[in-house]
Amino acid sequence: MIGPLIHMKRSIRIYGDPVLREKAEEVTAIDEQVRALARDMIETMHAQSGIGLAAQQVGETVSICVVDLPAEMDQDEDGAPMNPGVRMPMILLNPVILESDRKATSREEGCLSFPEIMGKIERPWTVTVRHKDLDGTSHERTYHGMLARVLQHEIDHLNGVLFIDRMSHVKRLALKGKLKRMRRETEEALAE
Predict the structure, then answer these.
(1) Is residue 77 flagged as an active site residue?
(2) Dist. CA 21–CA 162, nearest whole Å
(3) Which of 2, 145, 154, 167 would disulfide-bridge 82, Cβ 3.0–4.6 Å?
(4) In which residue ranges of the chain is pLDDT below 70?
(5) CATH code of the domain made up of 18-191
(6) What is the pTM of this model?
(7) pLDDT digits 0-9 by tens, 150-183
(8) Which of 25, 32, 154, 187 is catalytic?
(9) Mind giving me the DSSP string for 130-186?
């Protein structure tokens, strides 16, 4: 559940923190705590130059993620918006992927919870997502390209799935030492 909130940016939880593997609880009431958490998450994401953030990444286990994709990252080859009418930043409560395109693309991804680690991840090009906004209004929309990728990454977080889980076996082997060190350092910091 949501702990005490301070209206300032929060610390990003790093790989090795058990909260990153926890499945999010559904948001059942949209109250001031939920609104404050969403504001804090946007501020934290912006402070870290991120384009997406899930509640677990700031130590909460509620089904909230935020996305702020720059317009230039949401264009097709001709410069036209791929997801016209989508306003940023997005705040998604209880997001669920309803449908995924069979067409997948592979692209480098990073994650604020894995500093300095990048990896090629294959994800569907198009997804249909249902979620609520902070007004409690339900939305169902199909998203394409980079925005679809970011939404999948954040919804994975809400389900306790990390982007390293989607990496190839070879890539995970190559990162094994770095991941082990990161997990150990996080566990030691949490034990203090």
Answers:
(1) no
(2) 8
(3) 145
(4) 1-8
(5) 3.90.45.10
(6) 0.94
(7) 999 999 999 999 999 999 999 999 999 999 999 9
(8) 154
(9) EEE-TT--EEEEEEEHHHHHHHHHHHHHHTT--GGGGS-HHHHHHHHHHHHHHHHHH
